[in-house]
Amino acid sequence: MTVKQLYEYIGAFAPRALSAEWDNDGIACCVDEARTVRRVLVALDATDRVVEKCVQGGFDVLLTHHPLLFRGVKELTPSRTVPRKLIKLVRADVAAMSFHTRLDAANGGVNDILAQKLGLENVSTFGPDGEEMGRIGDLCATVSAVEYAQTVCEKLNISTVLLSGERPVRRVAVLGGEGGDFVDAAIKAGADLFLAGRIGYHRMLDGAEEGIALIEAGHFATEVAVCEKLAALVRAADPAVEVEVDAEPAIQTVSK
């Protein structure tokens, strides 16, 4: 399997047509699209540590959820973080590719995985016009917002979440990653509670007063499970390819 064939295989699962207009995922760098892929490293983010691991470990492809090239690169020098990583990857002949909002929206992608982990049934899509990548569904029984927040901690293997608002919860909307712009859509869809990786302090205050409970569970915690899905797609594309998942958080949680 070549780099191009791998990209096209995953692209069939998460087509470009599902991407948000502002997104910039895809192939960030690749010296030779016809290069044979033998080893793939999957991670949520192309951090310096992950890039160095690719280079030192002899990987052919770095496959991430978040794009390496998200904002404009104005110079290709080692003085800035993104160009520095690009230089390292190109020198080592490592291709870097990502699948971002299209993987959020895809059937079986980020938000379906999140909905399943959090116990939602009768799941459907929701979101602002043109960005219906979120998922909304029902719990098997009504619980309090605090009880559901505790369940979220257990299911996502995290110690804390932020909760705003208190009301009986049966219908839940979820979105991995940044979700502040989806609160209104969650209310419109009839959610009792909306969970996202990050919502924002003021939007959480306002949302609670608008009649919806809100949980902020962390960007990493709400999306990291998709790395295993990406790894499974690589293995399905070519069982001979060696795949490693790096699920180490890039940002630490520090307790007292």
Describe this structure in words.
This protein has 256 residues and is an alpha/beta fold. It has 2 domains: 3-102, Udp-n-acetylmuramoylalanyl-d-glutamate--2,6- Diaminopimelate Ligase, Chain: A, domain 1; 107-222, Udp-n-acetylmuramoylalanyl-d-glutamate--2,6- Diaminopimelate Ligase, Chain: A, domain 1. It has helices at residues 3-13, 48-57, 81-91, 101-105, 110-117, 145-156, 183-188, 201-209, 219-223, 226-237, and strands spanning 26-29, 39-43, 61-64, 95-98, 121-126, 134-144, 162-164, 168-178, 193-198, 213-216, 242-246. Strands 5-6-8-9-10-7 form a 6-stranded mixed sheet. Helix 2 (48-57) links the parallel strand 2 (39-43) and strand 3 (61-64). Helix 2 (48-57) packs parallel to helix 3. The longest helix has 12 residues, at 145-156. It is elongated and about 55 Å long.
